[in-house]
């Protein structure tokens, strides 16, 4: 049996006579239970191009909705190759379409912004 300090910040400090091994075991079990209950949010990435076809777009949006309903965040990356940099307006139209299609299950966390030859948009689950 050992004298274990339970609450050091109170006046007077609270101590208890108990088995230290059992106390450490109980603290470890509480920490494991808290770790088990926490929700880990992943960032899933979906890559598109400004000229992505309708069927491919629908397939990727369906996956994004699935990710958002699972509670994950989705990062849409629109990559530009060669002369596609001239079609930035088309990419912004695509971004508006993405936001409109996933508004039931997600909201915009980070609006679309250009980073070199790619545009990124992050949507989080509701």
Note down, in words, how this protein is organized.
With 126 residues, the protein is an alpha+beta fold. The protein folds into two domains: 2-37, no CATH class; 43-125, Translation initiation factor 3 (IF-3), C-terminal domain (Translation Initiation Factor IF3). The protein has three helices and six strands; from the N terminus they run ββαβαβαββ. It has helices at 20-37, 54-69, 88-101, and strands at 2-7, 14-18, 43-48, 73-79, 106-115, 118-125. It has a four-stranded mixed β-sheet, with helices on one face. The longest helix is centred in the first third of the chain and has 18 residues, at 20-37.
Brief overview:
The protein contains three helices and six strands. The protein is of the alpha+beta class and 126 residues long.
Helix content: 25-40%
Poorly predicted regions: none
The string of secondary-structure elements, in order, is EEHEHEHEE
Q: What's the domain count?
A: 2
Give a quick account of the main beta sheet: strands, pairing sense, barrel closure.
4 strands, mixed
Form type: elongated
Strand content: 25-35%
CATH class of the largest domain: Alpha Beta
The CATH superfamily title of the largest domain = Translation initiation factor 3 (IF-3), C-terminal domain
Fill in the CATH topology of the largest domain. Answer: Translation Initiation Factor IF3
**Extended strand count:** 6
Overall average residue pLDDT: 91
Overall structural class, as computed from helix and strand content, comes to: alpha+beta
In CATH, the architecture of the largest domain is 2-Layer Sandwich
Distance between the termini: 51 Å
């Amino acid at each position: 049996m050992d004298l274990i300090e339970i609450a050091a910040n109170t006046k007077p400090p609270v101590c208890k006579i108990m088995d230290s091994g059992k106390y450490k075991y109980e603290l470890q079990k509480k920490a494991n239970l808290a770790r088990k209950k926490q929700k880990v949010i992943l960032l899933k990435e979906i890559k598109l191009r400004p000229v992505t076809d309708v069927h491919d777009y629908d397939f990727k949006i369906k996956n994004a909705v699935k990710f958002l309903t699972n509670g994950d965040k989705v990062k849409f990356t629109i990559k530009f190759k060669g002369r596609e940099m001239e079609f930035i307006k088309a990419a912004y139209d695509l971004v508006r379409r993405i936001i409109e299609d996933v508004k039931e299950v997600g909201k915009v966390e980070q609006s679309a912004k250009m980073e070199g030859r790619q545009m990124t948009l992050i949507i989080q689950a509701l």
